[in-house]
Hints:
The chain has 2 helices and 8 strands; from the N terminus they run βββββαββαβ. About 10% of the residues lie in helices and about 35% in strands. The longest helix is centred in the last third of the chain and has 10 residues, at about 100-105. GO terms for molecular function: protein kinase binding.
Amino acid sequence: xxxxxxxxxxxxxxxxxxxxxxxxxxxxxxxxxxxxxxxxxxxxxxxxxxxxxxxxxxxxxxxxxxxxxxxxxxxxxxxxxxxxxxxxxxxxxxxxxxxxxxxxxxxxxxxxxxxxxxxxxxx
Length: 123
């Protein structure tokens, strides 16, 4: 019998780990001079998008982080590109449209995110 490289506990996710991230937005000014709360990341995906067409090669309709700006609140909070957002302030992000996710993220000054990151469990 082949030896397993690691012990896997039943009922735990093998490929990704859920990571809680608290992101405090920073006040900034947009191109039109309006005050905005900046979080410093962009998202892709959503149940209304065709993930097969995603340039990042995502495998489901989840909401994914496609960009994190250097030195931004998102970067400081530890958010990384390709993180999958599972929840935002307790709201389920696994079955939302792209627009709904964007408006939800824009609405809150503090984001309590739960993200899944591939390959974090492998050491």
